[in-house]
TrEMBL record, chain A:
Keywords: ATP-binding, Nucleotide-binding, Transport. The keyword Coiled coil does not apply. One of its GO terms (molecular function) is ATP hydrolysis activity. It comes from freshwater metagenome. Residues 4-252 form the ABC transporter domain. This is Unannotated protein.
From TrEMBL, chain B:
GO terms for cellular component: plasma membrane. InterPro entries: ABC_transp_permease, LivM-like. It is a multi-pass membrane protein. Its main location: membrane. This is Unannotated protein. It comes from freshwater metagenome. It is found in: Cell membrane. The keyword Transmembrane applies. The chain crosses the membrane at residues 18-38, 44-63, 70-90, 96-116, 123-141, 187-205, 235-254, 266-294, 314-336. The keyword Membrane applies.
Length: 254, 359
């Protein structure tokens, strides 16, 4: 059974059809890339799966659950974590605290217990801090752990979001353009890192990415979208040869 | 682990850093301890009022500073705390500080009610809802004069032994300690409560829940995707913030012994907000500093000025506020922090990397 199954999903904003009956599925521990020209609906699909947008039709099943039945703040409990295309860090917190936010749903401690700083709250805080530091260290961010998360280089900020998503201990990690703004060498490094993290944490990865070299190097499956529809699906090699894909990217031959 | 600047490491800083961190607090507590012995009774009474204001500002700061929800209605919540205390003591014979606990509970639920619209609206629109609450409250007090005493005021009385018989008499906070005058006793009692409230708020802010407040303030979608129940956090923060303001109001009632609707107008709400902003929103100690600044201004500095200037106090306060916001938009604490950051970067340290210094 696939881990994530998107079936016949459509999203309409007023008169604009952002997604039109899109279907695809994702096997456990696969790395799957969503590619397509700008405006193809890739981020819209991300927002449907992370329950930010309500689709006007279709179904999304994840790990035996109907995702559309689950409110946005609960999908993390089921094991779905994501990063954002335009960064969604918390500027009022340090880098470490941002990563700890990712572990929110994986930790305990309510308002009253926290106010009194009861012993279980303290030991939980130590555990979460330790875990967050481990993740930061794994992603090479240990140096900036206690810095406010503003004024850092773009690539670092992207990586912090990556760390925050990992802190949620997800089964499915959704990365929205993780390589954007990175230098050529950094993109290659990131590709290796994503593969390593997938193996270490037994993750399934769904990513939106424009860097074709990275997509082709690391994904087992590629879904190509254009104007809200899926136009092709398969291994990187299959997709690269598909005339419909070439047409969408280079314009249809006359 | 390599190079991780962890919580353990920050605890192991040198003795000099430790002294720099703890020293100011020890100094502050010494000053606070000798204050009531250095000033006449009427000043000590004023200090008590400043503390009730500081408590209310602390509550508002959790909501506005940390959770990003603006309320200009905390004067009303302060008033609800005060009147709940007064009515419970006078009508139902509840013990004084039992009434304070009850006032906190009542305000918690009122706060949740006031905060409900926050699930749909935010920013300026939410501020307007709380403004309506602040405007309505004194009118409601006069409307329900049967229990509130209306504009004639509510005299808080409790059954007390007087000349060998039980009588309804005005409440008083009497010092049980021989060497301590009543006002000094009240000062230390209020100081203890104020410190406890600020320490508990600090605990909350430095916890998982505190981080979730800031996350909801800064980015709701990111918060939600990280599993934070945004609506629940907003509503609970409103309730908690209101409960703390209510405790401030309750102490005000115990302090004054009589309550009038004119004490709880929109002006009070604005003063509480001013205390938060002047001290520095999103710093724990900021609201206390702001309350002291406000107290110093309205009870000390203005009083020293010639009588002709007195009527212009609101204008003077306004000008001072504008100047402060221009010079230090982060309030007193924000100003000190940026000075520290300047100092640190001149010495070659990373700028502003230790928000712990002032909590």
């Amino acid at each position: 059974m696939p881990l994530l199954e998107v079936r016949d999903v459509g999203v309409r904003f007023g008169g604009v059809l952002a997604l039109e009956s899109l279907s695809f599925s994702l096997e456990s521990e696969q790395i799957c890339a969503l590619i397509g020209p700008n405006g193809a609906g890739k981020t819209t699909l991300f927002n449907v799966v992370s329950r930010i947008y309500e689709p006007s039709q279709g179904q999304v099943r994840f790990d035996g659950h109907d995702l559309l039945e689950v409110p946005a703040h609960k999908i993390m409990d089921l094991g779905v974590a994501r990063t954002f295309q335009n960064l969604a860090l918390i500027p009022g917190l340090t880098v470490l605290q941002n990563v700890m936010i990712g572990a929110y749903g994986r930790s305990r401690g309510g308002m009253w217990a926290s106010t009194l700083r009861l012993p279980p709250v303290r030991s939980e805080e130590r555990r979460v801090t330790g875990r967050a530091l481990q993740i930061l260290d794994r992603l090479g961010l240990a140096e900036v752990a206690s810095r406010p998360c503003t004024g850092l280089p773009y690539g670092t900020l992207k990586r912090i979001e990556f760390a925050r998503a990992l802190a949620a201990e997800p089964k499915l990690l959704m990365l929205d353009e993780p390589a954007s703004g990175l230098t050529h060498g950094e993109v290659e490094e990131l590709g290796v890192l994503i593969q390593q993290i997938r193996d270490e944490f037994s993750l399934t990865v769904l990513l939106v990415e424009h860097h074709m070299s990275m997509v082709m190097a690391i994904s087992q499956k590629v879904v190509v979208m254009d104007l809200g529809r899926k136009i092709s699906e398969g291994t990187p090699a299959e997709v690269a040869d598909d005339p419909r894909v070439i047409a969408a990217y280079l314009g249809a031959p006359a | 682990m390599s190079g991780a600047v962890s919580a353990e490491q920050s605890a192991q800083r040198g003795p000099r850093e430790w002294a720099l961190k703890v020293g100011p607090w020890i100094l502050l507590f010494v000053i606070l301890a000798v204050l009531p012995f250095q000033f006449p009774s009427f000043r000590v009474e004023q200090f008590c009022f400043w503390m009730t204001l500081a408590i209310a500002a602390c509550g508002l700061n959790l909501l506005t500073g940390y959770n990003g929800q603006i309320s200009v209605g905390h004067g009303a919540l302060f008033g609800i705390g005060a009147y709940t205390t007064g009515i419970l003591i006078t009508e139902f014979g509840v013990p004084l500080f039992g009434a304070t606990v009850a006032a906190a509970v009542v305000c918690f639920f009122v706060g949740i009610l006031v905060g409900l619209p926050a699930l749909r609206i935010k920013g300026l629109y939410l501020a307007l809802v709380t403004l309506a609450v602040a405007t309505l409250f004194p009118l409601l007090l006069e409307q329900f004069s049967a229990i509130t005493g209306g504009s004639g005021g509510l005299q808080i009385t409790s059954p007390q032994m007087y000349r060998g018989e039980m009588r309804e008499r005005p409440i008083r906070l009497e010092s049980p300690i021989a060497g301590l005058a009543n006002d000094q006793w009240k000062y230390f009692l209020f100081l203890a409560i104020t410190v406890v409230i600020f320490v508990l708020s600090r605990n909350l802010i430095k916890s998982r829940v505190g981080r979730s407040l800031v996350a909801v303030r800064d980015n709701e979608i990111a918060a939600e995707s990280s599993g934070i129940p945004v609506s629940k956090v907003k509503i609970l923060t409103f309730g908690l913030s209101a409960a703390i303001a209510g405790i401030g109001g309750s102490l005000f009632a115990l302090d004054q012994g009589q309550l009038y609707p004119s004490s709880f107008t929109i002006v009070l709400s604005i003063y509480i907000l001013v205390a938060v902003v002047v001290g520095g929103a999103s710093s724990i100690i900021g609201p206390a500093i702001g309350a002291v600044f406000y107290g110093l201004f309205s009870d000390v500095i203005i009083q020293q000025m010639p009588d002709r200037i007195q009527p212009a106090r609101a204008v003077i306060l306004g000008v001072l506020l504008i100047l402060l916001m221009l010079l230090a938009p982060g309030g007193v604490v924000g100003g000190v922090r940026s000075l520290q950051a300047n100092f640190a970067s001149r010495k070659g340290g990373s700028p502003g990397s230790d928000p712990d210094l002032i909590m």
